[in-house]
Design brief:
Layout: H1 2-15, H2 17-33, H3 39-51, H4 56-72, H5 81-91, E1 107-112, H6 119-132, E2 137-142, H7 147-160, E3 163-165, H8 173-186, E4 191-196, H9 203-220, E5 225-233, H10 239-250, E6 255-259, H11 269-277, E7 281-285, E8 293-295, H12 298-306
Parallel strand pairs: 1-4, 1-5, 2-3, 2-4, 5-6, 6-7
Antiparallel strand pairs: 7-8
Helix pairs in contact: 1-12, 2-3, 3-4, 4-5, 5-12, 6-7, 8-9, 10-11
Bound molecules: guanosine-5'-triphosphate and magnesium ion (MG).
The site of guanosine-5'-triphosphate has 22 residues, from helix 6.
Length: 308
């Protein structure tokens, strides 16, 4: 167990390498390069955080918080600000207490997002984890737009060792969901995870489809606990925020899966998402394998980021 935890944290540290190099080396050189806490010092910190994709709004609130604490605690040395800064970043990412409630309820997890962000992969990884922790999981292949999407999810279902409900390419996604809900009820599944299409003929189509899927779940499975996760690709930085906002208009989003943090220096977006959208990042993807999905933990994230 201790080894598992170390491996888990070790993979997070490794996955965040590029982001760490981007943000932390900048911050460290500010702390060592300044001999006094002045406006220029704060401006440098601001610049580094913005470059690290924390976004302007989030950066401003972090630096404001820092200024206030420095004043309150009569801090004089730049080095002493480091811990305050880290805590202030952490404070931007409050998950709330019921983040993983769906694991303890009969639930439907709807996974949505634009094309290529990592929906199907994340569904597969999540299925594997839930199955390993003793849950009965069923997958719904509601991306019927391409045959390859159904094949890909079928592969993941095999890998995770869970059931999948699918129809052929071109069938109505809402009909797949209808079948999947029936299967979840009759087989007494704990969690039904629905993969959806990221690309349809146009964006309006996509959003209409999601509303329809939502209506089917509400109507056919009213007792189910609902979890709706938007998948965002960490490598797209600030663009991810705009995507999340669009999905917030059509569905009650309960959280974010932030993928591909292993390949990007823009991992600071994890902070911006939570701070600016008020949505918790519940999972992060740090690779393509089944074990490369982690529950987000602000403490671990900040520790891995700042190498502490
Ligand atoms: N490095 C890395 N690659 C990832 C991660 N998550 C997904 N990918 C890769 O991203 C690519 C797209 O992933 P998919 O799961 O197919 O994305 P999708 O959102 O289902 O795509 P569409 O169905 O086309 O909309 C694949 O090559 C995945 O292996 C991650 O956390 N890290
Ligand atoms: Mg997919």
């Amino acid at each position: 167990m201790a080894d598992g935890k170390k491996g888990f944290f070790g993979r997070l540290v490794e996955g965040l390498t590029k982001t760490r190099n981007n943000i932390v080396s900048g911050i460290d050189s500010i702390f060592s390069g300044f001999s006094a806490i002045d406006d220029e010092f704060y401006e440098e910190i601001e610049e580094t955080l913005i470059m690290g994709d924390l976004g302007i709004q989030t950066t401003m609130s972090i630096v404001e918080d820092l200024r206030r604490k420095v004043k309150e605690q009569h801090i004089k040395e730049p080095e002493e600000c480091k811990e305050l800064l880290i805590n202030s970043i952490k404070a931007q990412m409050d998950l709330g207490e019921n983040a993983y409630e769906f694991e303890h309820k009969r639930s439907v997890v709807l996974v949505i997002g634009v094309n290529g962000v990592g929906k199907t992969t994340s569904v597969g990884k999540l299925a594997g984890q839930l199955k390993d922790s003793g849950h009965k999981v069923i997958l719904a292949a509601a991306d019927t737009f391409r045959a390859a999407a159904i094949d890909q999810l079928t592969e993941w279902a095999k890998r995770a060792g869970v059931d999948i409900i699918a129809q052929q390419e071109g069938s109505d996604p809402a009909a797949v969901i209808y079948d999947a809900v029936a299967a979840a009820k009759s087989r007494k599944a704990d969690v039904l995870i629905c993969d959806t299409a990221g690309r349809l003929h146009n964006k309006k189509n996509l959003m209409e489809e999601l509303k329809k899927i939502n209506r089917i779940i509400d109507k056919e499975y009213p007792g189910a606990y609902r979890e709706t996760l938007v998948v965002l690709d960490g490598t797209t930085g600030q663009n991810a925020l705009a995507q999340a906002r669009q999905f917030m208009e059509v569905a009650d989003i309960t959280g974010i899966i932030l993928t591909k943090l292993d390949g990007t220096a823009k991992g600071g977006i994890a902070v911006a998402i939570q701070s600016e959208l008020g949505l918790p990042v519940k999972y992060i993807g740090i690779g393509e394998q089944i074990d490369d999905l982690q529950k987000f933990n602000a403490d671990d994230f900040v520790k891995a980021l700042f190498n502490i």
